[in-house]
């Protein structure tokens, strides 16, 4: 049997178990409500979830603009200038070791518990890895391409516009993917911690009243958001596949800094 | 490739400058000092906090949780990673699933841990374990795959026993990748445990930080942030230092 | 088209003069002499091959002729004028591996140097077509580099080097990444293009056979410090044929080069 079909069976099996185990009483409903009761819970409160989703998406969109815009821009600058790179990159990756979630209380004190503190936190949360990924990716641009452009008399600005930027497109995309995923996590986590609106808030509220089906409906919604975002980026990457060969030996940024690119919790 | 003395001095200068700007912003009142206590006040508070028995106890609680979660996640994850990497078919089946599991945000499952374990030690360790294990599995498979087939063939052709192959080929080839994995796993683990403490807990330094935040105790809050950041960076640098020592294995 | 309009040529177009050139790389611990007092004359229309072991400075010398790197001492003139920076009107460069831009099609790659100088789309296209035809890639213009074989990619690189019709073509191990058969075919192709255009070619290689097979003159270099140890004429008639490879004349030339290289290795 092909690996793909086994995989499909596993996924179907897991979904089936999700329905069957709670129904048969092997797992208490409180720990894991069945798939059908989760979906029903979500459907019954569709209006509430839709409103929460709107709040969350709004915060995600703004944070993404900050995190990805800033991260890609700064990563490109730092990645292409050797001196700042040597100076700053190790510091940035040290900073990456800090569990940034401890900053969220600071933002709530400064900005209140509305959307502003979530946007501030999620922007910072997504910023560092995006910057690291972009800077790493810029470095993978084949130096031969730049040398060739120079031999043809390209000026610095021509090299930037005609070589560095097109060659950096796959990197920018992977930066976007990492940053975007983290921004979603950042927004939802901050909503879960202290908040008055959004999906994270709903999850936490239903958790305190031990209403598992509603908790899982929220979790499912966030999952769907993350999956949809991933799929969107994949689609764009597919469209830009021709660029993928623009880096040295066809390396992608992930191969160079795999861990830096992944969403921390 | 190693940074010279000048670069190190420049880095220290940047950090000092950041603290200086912080101090000036607060002292001159450009930023309300109630919202941003000065750097010196914060560091003084940090000194006080470290004297306090309650804070030390919180640190001990967090450390215990972190170490427990780490000690569970690393061997279990490494074992799963090995099994997956060693079997082609298995790898083909499992890898996309793992990638998927890896890419979804783990934090949204935090409420589930509370529903299952209640609020306490096992909930935090459980969530720390859950946030760490996927990265351990992934890194282990990467590490195994980083072993060059040529090296294995050479070892086999000279009649190396499985034991010899493990210790003379696998381990040295994988060591740099494993160290890197250890470092990243620790970051994930620490983040997971602290988030769990902030979300719902009665003790631990993450809980303490959340409480300071809710009570607008900015000095303590910032001192706590500086403290955790310092601990995390120190650990990170320690592992990177070891990595650098082993770096001649790379390439 | 008058590519040399702005230079008053003291020497005929295509002449290369290298006078007492030295190149010192400064590292933190010591100064490395990459080239030591190298002098060389290449007459217009000649096919000259630089050969020698790694580190003998042959590529460095080529990069200096291209204006991509400046010598520490001495002078280099191309068509009678020094070359302080790359000048695609005087010198075309072909690099080792395909340094084609992966996001551009073959013809867009060939047009690249023209686009840098703001030449109109129609002119560009016409000249690119001409160059592609010259290298035998008529009809492949719309393909992207990843859709071309290694040999075809290098043909595109050659077309790109020739598109501005410079009198000099510099080639830095252009066929090193190709397999033996393709390499031989490309050698014949290059000789055909060279005969058709009458360019001065300076060609860097590791391969003794390739050197003797292609060259009018072979310059043998040795490392530490990089200097010229022999300069030999290849009296074999043109066109070169595969039969010559097994002839005595060919063998003794190759032996002579090998003895130099063995000594310095």
TrEMBL record, chain A:
It is a multi-pass membrane protein. PROSITE patterns: ABC_TM1 (PS50928). The chain crosses the membrane at residues 49-74, 86-113, 119-138, 182-203, 215-236. One of its GO terms (cellular component) is plasma membrane. Coiled coil: none annotated. Pfam families: BPD_transp_1 (PF00528). GO terms for biological process: transmembrane transport. InterPro entries: MetI-like (IPR000515), MetI-like_sf (IPR035906). It is found in: Cell membrane. The keyword Transmembrane applies. Residues 53-233 form the ABC transmembrane type-1 domain. Keywords: Cell membrane, Membrane, Transmembrane, Transmembrane helix, Transport. It comes from the Bacteria. Belongs to the binding-protein-dependent transport system permease family. This is ABC transporter permease. It comes from Bradyrhizobium archetypum. The lineage of its organism: Bacteria, Pseudomonadati, Pseudomonadota, Alphaproteobacteria, Hyphomicrobiales.
From TrEMBL, chain B:
PROSITE patterns: ABC_TM1 (PS50928). Pfam families: BPD_transp_1 (PF00528). The keyword S-adenosyl-L-methionine does not apply. InterPro entries: MetI-like, MetI-like_sf. It comes from the Bacteria. Its main location: membrane. This is ABC transporter permease.
């Amino acid at each position: 049997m092909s690996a793909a079909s086994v995989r499909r069976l596993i996924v179907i099996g897991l979904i089936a178990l999700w329905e069957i185990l709670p129904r048969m009483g092997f797992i208490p409903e409180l720990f894991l409500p069945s798939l059908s009761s989760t979906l029903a819970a979500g459907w019954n409160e569709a209006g509430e979830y839709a409103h929460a989703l709107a709040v969350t998406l709004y915060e995600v969109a703004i944070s993404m603009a900050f995190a990805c815009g800033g991260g890609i821009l700064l990563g490109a600058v730092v990645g292409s200038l050797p001196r700042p790179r040597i100076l700053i990159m190790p510091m940035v990756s040290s900073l990456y070791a800090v569990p940034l979630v401890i900053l969220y209380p600071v933002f709530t004190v400064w900005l209140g518990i509305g959307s502003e503190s979530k946007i501030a936190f999620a922007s910072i949360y997504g910023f560092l890895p995006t910057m690291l990924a972009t800077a790493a990716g810029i470095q993978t641009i084949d130096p031969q391409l730049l040398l060739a452009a120079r031999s043809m008399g390209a000026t610095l600005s021509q090299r930037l516009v005609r070589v560095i930027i097109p060659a950096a497109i796959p990197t920018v995309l992977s930066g976007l993917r990492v940053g975007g995923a983290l921004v979603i996590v950042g927004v939802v986590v901050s909503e879960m911690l202290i908040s008055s609106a959004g999906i994270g808030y709903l999850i936490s509220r239903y958790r305190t009243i031990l209403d598992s089906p509603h908790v899982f409906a929220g979790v499912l919604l966030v999952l769907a958001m993350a999956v949809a975002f991933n799929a969107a980026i994949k689609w764009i990457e597919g469209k830009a596949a021709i660029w993928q060969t623009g880096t040295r030996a066809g390396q992608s940024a992930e191969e160079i800094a795999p861990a830096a690119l992944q969403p921390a919790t | 490739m190693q940074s010279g003395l000048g670069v190190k001095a420049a880095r220290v200068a940047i950090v000092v400058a950041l603290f200086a700007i912080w101090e000036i912003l607060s002292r001159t009142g450009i930023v309300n000092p109630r919202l941003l206590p000065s750097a010196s006040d914060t560091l003084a508070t940090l000194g006080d906090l470290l004297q306090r028995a309650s804070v030390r106890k919180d640190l001990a609680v967090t450390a215990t949780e972190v170490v427990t979660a780490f000690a569970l996640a690393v061997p279990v994850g490494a074992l799963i990673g090995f099994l997956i990497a060693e079997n082609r078919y298995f790898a083909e089946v499992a890898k996309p699933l793992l990638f998927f599991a890896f890419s979804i945000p783990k934090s949204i499952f935090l409420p589930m841990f509370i529903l299952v374990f209640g609020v306490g030690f096992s909930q935090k360790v459980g969530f720390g374990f859950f946030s760490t294990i996927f990265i351990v599995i992934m890194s282990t498979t990467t590490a195994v795959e980083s072993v060059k087939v040529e090296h294995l063939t050479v070892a086999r052709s000279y009649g190396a026993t499985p034991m010899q192959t493990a210790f003379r080929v696998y381990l040295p080839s994988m060591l740099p990748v494993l160290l890197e994995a250890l470092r990243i796993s620790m970051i994930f683990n620490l983040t997971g445990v602290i988030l769990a403490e902030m979300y719902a807990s009665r003790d631990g330094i993450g809980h303490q930080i959340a409480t300071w935040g809710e009570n607008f105790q900015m000095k303590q809050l910032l001192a706590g942030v500086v403290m955790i950041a310092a601990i995390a960076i120190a650990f990170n640098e320690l592992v990177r230092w070891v990595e650098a020592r082993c770096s001649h294995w790379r390439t | 088209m008058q590519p040399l309009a702005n230079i008053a040529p003291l020497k005929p177009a295509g002449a290369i003069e290298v006078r007492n050139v030295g190149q010192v790389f400064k590292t933190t611990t010591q100064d490395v002499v990459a080239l030591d007092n190298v002098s060389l004359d290449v007459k217009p229309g000649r096919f000259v091959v630089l050969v020698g072991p790694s580190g003998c400075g042959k590529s460095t010398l080529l990069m200096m002729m291209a204006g991509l790197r400046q010598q520490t001492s001495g002078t280099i003139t191309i068509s009678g004028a020094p070359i302080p920076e790359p000048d695609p009107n005087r010198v075309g460069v072909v690099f080792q591996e395909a340094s084609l831009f992966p996001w551009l099609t073959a013809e867009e790659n060939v047009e690249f140097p023209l686009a840098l100088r703001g030449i109109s789309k129609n002119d560009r296209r016409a000249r690119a077509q001409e160059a592609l035809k010259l290298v035998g890639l008529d009809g492949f213009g719309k393909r992207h580099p990843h859709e071309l074989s290694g040999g075809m990619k290098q043909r595109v690189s050659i077309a790109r080097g020739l598109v501005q019709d410079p009198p000099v073509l510099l080639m830095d191990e252009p066929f090193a990444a190709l397999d033996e058969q393709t390499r031989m075919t490309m050698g014949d192709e290059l000789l055909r293009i060279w005969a058709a255009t009458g360019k001065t070619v300076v060609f860097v290689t590791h391969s003794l056979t390739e050197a003797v097979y292609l060259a009018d003159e072979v310059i043998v270099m040795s490392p530490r410090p990089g200097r010229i140890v022999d300069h030999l004429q290849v009296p074999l008639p043109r066109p070169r044929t595969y039969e010559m490879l097994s002839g005595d004349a060919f063998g003794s030339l190759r032996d002579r080069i090998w003895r130099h290289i063995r000594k310095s290795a």
